[in-house]
């Protein structure tokens, strides 16, 4: 059947057919090369998503004369089975049923714009074949940098204090700082709150059983587990501790974030002002409206 008859059959003009044919371009990249570039990054950051990979590979694209748009790159990842599946897990580490003093939420309407403005604290569980361990974390809410941590086999406030002490040692400014956490007994303890007050840090806590009230801390927990393999069951404490140290180093120095305009937490933490990217469709408090 002639080209003219085929075009007429499907309701197209011959001119439209040839124009479309002219605009169809063959991909300007070598699939094997592109795959190897992706795999190279995934060796260090195994669960990095497609949009972030696209930004991180821009220099390699220029170096190897690869011409590919973001949507085509995402299609390539899907075709090559390189997309990362999402996994949801939950384990309760907070005990808010206690007699100790609770503090109000100071950040519900706060606009984040600089490092050392708000630190968010949380605890997540990790496992070995022998027992369960707990990772006590402190993260800068604006730069997303993990500023303090402690791995332990207990949920004692003295262990949580060690993570805070690390963050205080590494604190780079003396600007007014707010410490935000859930109402767990570790954060309400006299030992912990006294250390915050001694360093002139304001104390803020969640008011409801809503994870969005401490969304940044919850998200960092998820990233460490799902993107850096901390959800695995490790052979022993030594292996787990080594993986935690490596994961936090990679997270702070190499893992880019959408909300801080595709730079790393360490890079963001060096800035005086940070313009967080906002997503209006998320109807939550301002401090929780930026994903990472």
UniProtKB/TrEMBL annotation:
SUPFAM superfamilies: Ribonuclease H-like (SSF53098)
InterPro entries, per the entry: Integrase_cat-core (IPR001584), RNaseH-like_sf (IPR012337), RNaseH_sf (IPR036397), Transpos_IS3 (IPR048020), Transposase_IS3/IS150/IS904 (IPR050900)
Boundaries of every Integrase catalytic domain copy: 111-273
GO terms for MF: nucleic acid binding
Any one GO BP annotation for this protein: DNA integration
Pfam families membership: rve, rve_2
Superkingdom per UniProt: Bacteria
NCBIfam families registered for this protein in UniProt: transpos_IS3
Name this polypeptide is given: DDE domain protein
Species this protein is from: Cloacibacterium normanense
Species classification: Bacteria, Pseudomonadati, Bacteroidota, Flavobacteriia, Flavobacteriales
């Amino acid at each position: 059947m002639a080209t003219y008859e085929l075009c007429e059959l499907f309701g197209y003009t011959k001119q439209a057919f040839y124009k479309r044919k002219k605009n169809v371009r063959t991909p300007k990249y070598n699939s094997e090369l592109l795959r190897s570039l992706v795999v190279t990054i995934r060796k260090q950051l195994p669960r990095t998503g497609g949009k972030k990979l696209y930004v991180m590979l821009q220099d390699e694209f220029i170096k190897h004369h690869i011409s590919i748009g973001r949507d085509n790159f995402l299609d390539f990842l899907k075709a090559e089975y390189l997309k990362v599946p999402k996994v949801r897990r939950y384990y309760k580490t907070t005990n808010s049923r206690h007699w100790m003093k609770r503090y109000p939420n100071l950040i519900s309407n706060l606009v984040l714009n600089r490092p050392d403005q708000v630190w968010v604290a949380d605890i997540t569980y990790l496992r070995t074949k022998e027992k369960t361990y707990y990772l006590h974390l402190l993260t800068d809410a604006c730069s997303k940098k993990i500023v303090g941590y402690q791995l332990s086999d207990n949920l004692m406030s003295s262990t949580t204090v060690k993570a805070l002490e690390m963050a205080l040692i590494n604190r780079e400014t003396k600007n007014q700082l707010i410490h935000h956490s859930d109402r767990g007994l570790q954060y309400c303890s006299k030992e912990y709150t006294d250390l915050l007050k001694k360093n002139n840090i304001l104390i803020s806590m969640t008011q409801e059983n809503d994870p969005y009230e401490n969304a940044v801390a919850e998200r960092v927990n998820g990233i460490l587990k799902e993107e850096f393999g901390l959800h695995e069951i490790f052979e022993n404490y030594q292996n787990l501790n080594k993986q935690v140290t490596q994961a936090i180093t990679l997270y702070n120095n190499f893992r880019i974030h959408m909300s801080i305009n595709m730079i790393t937490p360490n890079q963001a933490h060096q800035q005086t002002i940070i313009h967080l990217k906002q997503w209006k469709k998320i109807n939550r408090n301002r401090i929780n409206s930026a994903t990472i």
